[in-house]
Design a protein that fits this description.
Layout: H1 2-31, H2 39-48, E1 72-74, E2 83-89, E3 95-104, E4 109-114, E5 117-122, E6 126-131, E7 140-144, E8 155-160, E9 165-175, E10 190-202, E11 205-209, H3 213-222, H4 237-250
Parallel strand pairs: 1-10
Antiparallel strand pairs: 2-3, 2-6, 3-4, 4-5, 6-7, 7-8, 8-9, 9-10, 10-11
Helix pairs in contact: 1-2
């Protein structure tokens, strides 16, 4: 019986403490009527001691308090490093050598670094360019689709050169923030996502290779590739390279 009595007494004391505390809060709210500190804010410190009733992780955007600005995720560049480059211009076929560039695949232009200054060259001016080899990175050649009367793209990387060229286009799409303040879900960040597509260049004609491996095979066979070519052979970029390299070596 004594243990039951003690438990009841403790529960009664805790209840009395909470009642007294609430009474104190009510008094505090009235007693500080002339204070510059809002009484409910002052009382909130006392309320927290009752069991942390204020949610610390509450999304303040619901209450009109500005949220931190989102960031930009992703990369505008095919390679963020500055690469030593030789550039061939459309105008008078002028060649510019040994300049530092990087390819902005979002805006489809070249950034050129001259000293501490960075300039942007629109793809309208550049016919082609080559990144010189750098440590373990091989040379990379790029051509402008404008020379094939295709103005909507920009630069294509030459993966395999020859009578049938394999070209690669790298481009971006922007995913805008989709953050829902009320539900506190989604992302506040803008995301730049890179994609790739591949092209066959034959007789100065650009042919886009579809995503379907079976349809790729149809197009390549129609353009002289071996009848033994199968979809699984060209399911990857390395497989595509190999198929084009085999074609080139077969007609030499």
């Amino acid at each position: 019986m004594s243990s039951l009595t003690t438990s009841a007494q403790l529960a009664n004391k805790n209840t009395m403490k909470k009642v007294s505390l609430m009474a104190f809060i009510a008094f505090a709210c009235n007693g500080y009527a002339q204070s510059v500190i809002p009484p409910n804010l002052r009382a909130s410190l006392t309320l927290q001691s009752l069991g942390n009733t204020i949610t610390r992780n509450m999304d303040l955007g619901v209450y009109g308090i500005p949220l931190p600005e989102g960031e930009v995720e992703g990369n505008l560049y095919l390679d963020s490093e500055w690469r030593t480059t030789n550039i061939l211009l459309f105008q008078e076929e002028k060649l510019i050598t040994n300049v530092l560039t990087r390819l902005d695949v979002h805006h489809q232009g070249l950034e050129v670094k001259i000293g501490n200054e960075v300039r942007f060259i629109d793809n309208k001016l550049v016919k082609s360019f080559v990144w010189q080899s750098y440590h373990e990175k091989p040379e990379k050649y790029f051509i402008n689709t404008r020379q094939f009367n295709r103005t909507e793209f920009g630069f294509l990387e030459v993966l395999v050169d020859g009578p049938k060229c394999l070209l690669k286009r790298t481009y971006t799409r922007v995913k805008k923030p989709d953050y829902n303040v009320a539900l506190s879900v989604g992302s506040r960040n803008t995301k730049i996502i890179q994609f790739s597509s591949y092209y066959l260049l034959t007789n100065d004609k650009l042919i886009e290779l579809p995503n379907s491996d079976a349809k790729k095979v149809e197009i390549l066979k129609a353009n002289g590739f071996t009848n033994s070519l199968r979809g699984k052979d060209i399911a990857t970029e390395s497989g595509l390279r190999l198929a084009f390299q085999k074609f080139s070596s077969s007609i030499k």
